[in-house]
Amino acid sequence: MSAALPEKGRAWAELKKEMQARGQNDVKWREGKTAVYVFNAGPEIAQVQKEAYTMYMSENGLGPLAFPSLKQMEEEVISMALSILHGPEGATGAMTSGGTDSITMALKTARDFARANGKAKSKANIVLPRSAHPAFEKAAHMMDIEVRRVAIDPKTLLADPDAMKAALDADTVMMVGSAPNFPHGVIDPISALGEVAAEKDVWLHVDACVGGYFAPFARMNGVDVPPFDFEVPAVRSMSADLHKYGYAAKGASSVLFRSGELYKHMPFDTDDWSGARMITPTLAGTRPGGAIAAAWAVMNFLGIEGYKEKQGLVCATREKIQKGVEALGCEVLGDPKLGLLAFRHPELDSYALWGKMLERGWFTSITTEPPSLHLMLSPFHAEVADQYLTDLEAGMADLRAGKTGEKREARYS
Ligand SMILES: *Cc1c(COP(=O)(O)O)cnc(C)c1O
Fold this sequence. Notes:
With 413 residues, this protein is an alpha/beta fold. It has 12 helices and 13 strands. It folds into 2 domains: 31-42 and 305-400, Aspartate Aminotransferase, domain 1, CATH 3.90.1150.10; 49-299, 3-Layer(aba) Sandwich (Aspartate Aminotransferase, domain 2), CATH 3.40.640.10. Helices cover 39% and strands 15% of the residues. The structure holds pyridoxal-5'-phosphate (PLP). Pyridoxal-5'-phosphate binds next to helix 4.
């Protein structure tokens, strides 16, 4: 990497051209051949995101007094979220910059809640299924909290409530279930985890980063989604990413709490410096107004009807791909019901097959336990599902013919 700040500035027209040229080497997600990192809900949504974002691009959510517009939009985003996730009277939350931020803040809140109640004073731990997102590890690392990963059921790939129960102790500040988990897209048994949490009086967090704005609509469409949100009485907090299936612009997630009594352990309030008193609800100081505005606009643009339509399309595409890969002799891992799925072929090397798909322009993710190909689907994938299956069949034929090629490294990015 070498680029010194140029002595003289350059014309925007020239810079714009250069940036467009640089983008040529990126994955072709607009053509639908990417099933990780980006969500493509079509040009209409993209326009709403873009215009709403730029309208409030310079405004700062750090200053609710200066920008009542952003405060109001954030409050409405949170109450719209709670309205689809069975938030009880008094439930509350905040917008954050993403899932990692939401998870970090939920863990910090749970730890401070435990300490305020005389627990986990000197050391703390968090109990997580093997499939829970690394964001919990990152947050725990920053706060010096011990991570206890618990094996998942090898058949269903779901969190094991009894095994999790055995890992809890007096210093446990949080236990976690995912709805769904990222690797296999399956929804942990939140009701059963809730029973453990209630019995042991432990904070239960549901990581619905990828499912929070999907599962409620899948359920409205008749998909058999088990209780996973505040409907389960022991759930104290949730993370749900707006910049995933909320179809908001990036930099937007929500962290939600059952009550103000729990939430009050989240904001940081200090006046111990020479500047003005500062109260910040989340990790960020400056908060991008554009991300708040775009989330508000997209949610109101789509409404329940719009989300039901989009998520219905995604579920139908997942079912189509699921049936298609099974017809090619592959097995789908677990019982995915939403927009993610992982699959593998019993004889062919998953990572070599990943490479064969990359050769055909497909950029997707993988899982490691067991090795498999991973897809996170967007509405736009409805238009390319047939192509994916055709390419998969051709890729499998290549492998059978001994044409191996590049293998995917066993890491996320
Ligand atoms: C994406 C995701 C996260 C992390 O969210 P970021 O926005 O990438 O920080 C956490 N948990 C799950 C289940 C996710 O899918």
